Automatic annotation (TrEMBL):
Name of the encoding gene: Pcdhb8
Keyword Signal (UniProt): yes
Transmembrane in keyword set: yes
Protein name (Swiss-Prot/TrEMBL): PCDB8 protein
GO biological process: homophilic cell adhesion via plasma membrane adhesion molecules
Pfam families: Cadherin (PF00028)
Boundaries of every Cadherin domain copy: 1-102, 103-207, 208-313, 314-350
GO cellular component, one term: plasma membrane
Its membrane topology: Single-pass type I membrane protein
Major location category of this protein: membrane
Compartment(s) where it occurs, according to its Swiss-Prot or TrEMBL record: Cell membrane
Naturally occurring in which organism (per UniProt): Crypturellus soui
Gene Ontology MF term list: calcium ion binding
């Protein structure tokens, strides 16, 4: 009998036979033990004997009770009465009255952003109380807003979700997937899967100079801020935590300003163009990943000349001997002087 048959449905049975006649013949039917699902109905036939039917009193549910077993008892009118018994076994046939049920409404999984194609994220599970094709489940992605399933695939039979391509934490650190489980009768259920992309240290720190002064006057006082730069790292957590320093530089220093900004090339001592006309300063940044990644930027600082050097004669004293009859206008001596400064500051005139 198909489950969910309407109460009141009748099912004819072959009746019992009694060779006696009259009051000793078959008189009634009953069932034992009594149950909530069936009762017995019988009436006399015109040709003799009695017809018997099972009457469904309550809708069957295969998932609650796949079989109902009881005895049909035929009783005659003798004293004491005689009985005959037949075993009745009702097999409840399944209909697709149960949708699949996921083991969880929400699944959470993690996957490294550099996990290779085909890596397993997680597996969703669903069951269906029906049997046969009605209980066979297939899994698929369900269309949802704000999501793209191109980076994932799901095995229709096992429910395993795998990546189809490397992910990028910096592009999206979380993916929301909607999974549909559908049985062979077309009933379905939905669940949500949240996939957290785990950051790996795949980005080196970036040093971006936001302002810079060059050339720098050699007369600039110690403590003068020459530039400002910001350090960035697209990774998260320790992978994105960056420390900075200057490489082997005595004339300049580095000072943290705010957040990821640093004051660049703070003069620690007075410059001297005559000692060094320019400086190539190497800025370095390293993150906290394992292994760590490093970013560098080279800054070329030109020192602007100041007129801080007086001309210097080649000799402090020149001595010459001149005859008294030397003609007027004759060249007696050539003096020379140099100036360590640059440009106009280094051009020497004689008076």
């Amino acid at each position: 009998i198909v489950e969910m048959s309407e109460p009141g449905s009748r099912f004819s049975l072959e009746g019992a036979e009694d060779l006696d006649v009259g009051s000793y013949s078959l008189q009634a039917y009953s069932i034992a033990p009594e149950n909530d699902y069936f009762s017995v109905s019988f009436r006399s036939r015109s040709e003799g004997g009695k017809s018997v039917e099972l009457v469904l009193e309550k809708a069957l549910d295969r998932e609650e009770e796949p079989e109902v077993t009881f005895s049909l008892i035929a009783t005659d009118g003798g004293s004491p009465p005689r009985t005959g018994t037949a075993q009745i076994r009702i097999i409840v046939l399944d209909i697709n009255d149960n949708a699949p049920v996921f083991s969880q409404e929400l699944y959470r999984g993690q996957i490294l952003e550099n996990a290779p194609k085909g890596s397993l994220v997680l597996r969703v599970l669903a069951t269906d109380a029906d049997v046969g094709a009605n209980g066979e489940i297939s899994f698929s992605f369900s269309q949802a807003l704000d999501q793209s399933h191109s980076a994932f695939e799901i095995d229709a039979q096992s429910g395993e979700i795998r990546v189809t391509q490397p992910l990028d934490f910096e592009a999206s650190h979380k993916h929301e997937l909607r999974i549909r489980a559908t049985d062979g009768g077309g009933l379905s259920a939905l669940c949500k899967v949240l996939v957290e992309v785990v950051d790996v240290n795949d980005n080196a720190p970036e040093l971006v100079v936001s302002s810079f002064v060059s050339p720098v006057a050699e007369s600039a006082l110690p403590g003068t801020v020459v530039g400002l730069f910001v350090v960035k790292d697209r990774d998260a957590g320790a992978n994105g935590k960056v420390s900075c320093w200057l490489e082997e530089q005595a004339s300049f220093s580095l000072r943290a300003a705010y957040k990821n900004y640093y004051e660049l090339l703070v003069l620690t001592k007075a410059l001297d163009r005559e000692e060094a006309a320019f400086y190539d300063v190497m800025l370095k940044a390293v993150d906290g990943g394992d292994p760590a990644r490093t970013g560098t930027v080279r800054i070329h600082v030109v020192v602007l000349d100041a007129n801080d050097n007086a001309p210097v004669f080649s000799q402090s004293v020149y001595t010459i001997r001149v005859r008294e009859d030397v003609p007027v206008g004759s060249a007696l001596l050539t003096v020379s002087a140099t100036d360590a400064d640059d440009g106009m500051n280094g051009e020497v005139t004689f008076l």
